[in-house]
Amino acid sequence: MIETPSFIWYELMTPDRDAAIDFYGKVAGWTAAPHPSSQTSSGPYMVLSREGREFGGVFEFTDDMRANGMPPMWNGYVAVPDVDATVAALKAAGGSVHMGPEDIPGVGRFAMAADPGGALFYVMTPRPESVPPPRPEPDSPACGWHELYAGQGEKAAFEFYSGLFGWETLREMDMGPMGSYRVFGAGGEQYGGMMDKPDRVARPAWGYYFTVDGVDAAAARVADNGGTVLNGPMDVPDGNWIIQCADPQGAAFSLVSKER
């Protein structure tokens, strides 16, 4: 049973599935295997695993996506008790729906949505046996942080997400000219942060920080395999180290570690 909505799955949409899988395998040590019952017009849906545990997937652009100029991107799935009810509430709060709600046979029911500022995310009611339960890895998650660059401002964004998912503010940090950084979560557990979209970020978006052992070595692997380190390494207030990057196809992602 889903008590508090939280991120449970991460999906890369890319123009070159095989090259992306090779890159992240070398950078983060992930493995990939085709989903046994999921075939798209661009090939199999590839399921990503970290240390033997499935946590995400890779979807190659369809011809329509290529023709429409879709940018490569990571998206996250938030588990909710009832997708259709969540979609209705989301629309009433000023969000929009880009796909669904619809069923994925044997997996669950989902919809692709956007908050009022334009940041994309998925909502999903999974079948109990299809994906890990919410927050399955509190000690060593595949994704260690979720960060919203809010197009409508972090305060308005938080009001939207707290009303939709019941998320709460755990603390706020003053970033000077960049505004406030709001750490959010539920039940006292940190899920991530929200901030006003910086000018350097092309569009409102959720950013995902994937866990590695040591950011210096990871930064070298990013560069050696055709990616770009955009920012960092830098330490953050919780004692971790981060780097913000782009993969060779242009999808933004970040890495986080307890060690530099």
How is this structure best described in words?
This protein is an alpha+beta fold and 260 residues long. The protein folds into two domains: 6-126, 2,3-Dihydroxybiphenyl 1,2-Dioxygenase, domain 1 (Roll); 143-257, 2,3-Dihydroxybiphenyl 1,2-Dioxygenase, domain 1 (Roll). 19% of the residues lie in helices and 47% in strands. It contains five helices and 16 strands. The strands form two sheets. An eight-stranded mixed β-sheet has the order 2-3-4-1-5-8-7-6. Helix 1 packs antiparallel against helix 5. The radius of gyration is 17 Å and the shape is globular. 38% of the residues are buried.
Count of individual helical segments: 5
Number of domains: 2
Secondary-structure element series: EHEEEHEHEEEEHEEEEHEEE
Please indicate the percent range of residues in DSSP E strands (runs of 2 or more): over 45%
Spans of at least 5 consecutive residues with low confidence: none
CATH architecture of the largest domain: Roll
The largest sheet, given as strand count, sense and whether it forms a barrel, is: 8 strands, mixed
> Share of helix among residues?
10-25%
Helix/strand-derived class? alpha+beta
Backbone shape: globular
Mean pLDDT: 91
The CATH superfamily name of the largest domain is 2,3-Dihydroxybiphenyl 1,2-Dioxygenase, domain 1
Q: What is the terminal separation in angstroms?
A: 38 Å
CATH topology of the largest domain: 2,3-Dihydroxybiphenyl 1,2-Dioxygenase, domain 1
CATH class of the largest domain: Alpha Beta
